[in-house]
Amino acid sequence: MNVFRILGDVSHLLAIIILLMKILKSKSCAGISGKSQILFALVFTTRYLDLFTTFISVYNTVMKVIFLVCAYVTVYMIYVKFRKTFDSENDSFRLEFLLVPVTGLSFLENHSFTPLEILWTFSIYLEAVAILPQLFMISKTGEAETITTHYLFFLGLYRALYIANWVWRYYTENFYDQIAVVSGVVQTIFYCDFFYLYVTK
């Protein structure tokens, strides 16, 4: 494992912790897209099904479990514990516009036509666009709380570090995963769009 991947994982985890701490400290989900959080929970669920079939390392297993637990705790906070503070009116992005094409693409373009591989591919494609409901909410309201922007910054940093990880692996291991790389680049472009929105709003 290289330093870019470790820093990417830490940045990703930090983003989730920042979001959870924001919700717990303020007892509010204001400014947070519940739909994006549902998509991220779906991403982790479909990606980490290999927890039941493959052991890679303790680090790998622990990180997967932490991401899964945090994702579902976040969804619980938004839709159950602090649902009265959730801005459902502005969290109006239609998820079918993402789920239908992502599902179709995962069946058409994958590494092998097996259930686990299709679900893994689905998770990669979905992660690339899962932030769109959050960006749509920010563009609609014209507001982004500082804590929410920190969350998005560290998510964007995670993607940028993973691109560096892929470059490193290509030159040191001759490893290249076209699905992951293309999806990761698309996702990073969306985060660049967030920084544009943040500056202009």
From TrEMBL:
What is its membrane topology?
Multi-pass membrane protein
Quote the cellular component terms of the Gene Ontology held in the record. Answer: COPI-coated vesicle membrane; endoplasmic reticulum membrane; Golgi membrane
One GO BP on record is: protein retention in ER lumen
Which locations, inside or outside the cell, does it occupy? Cytoplasmic vesicle, COPI-coated vesicle membrane; Endoplasmic reticulum membrane; Golgi apparatus membrane
InterPro entries in the cross-refs: ER_ret_rcpt
- Known Pfam families for this protein? ER_lumen_recept
Q: What is its main location?
A: membrane
Annotated membrane-spanning segments are 62-80, 120-138, 150-168, 180-199
Q: What's the protein here called?
A: ER lumen protein-retaining receptor
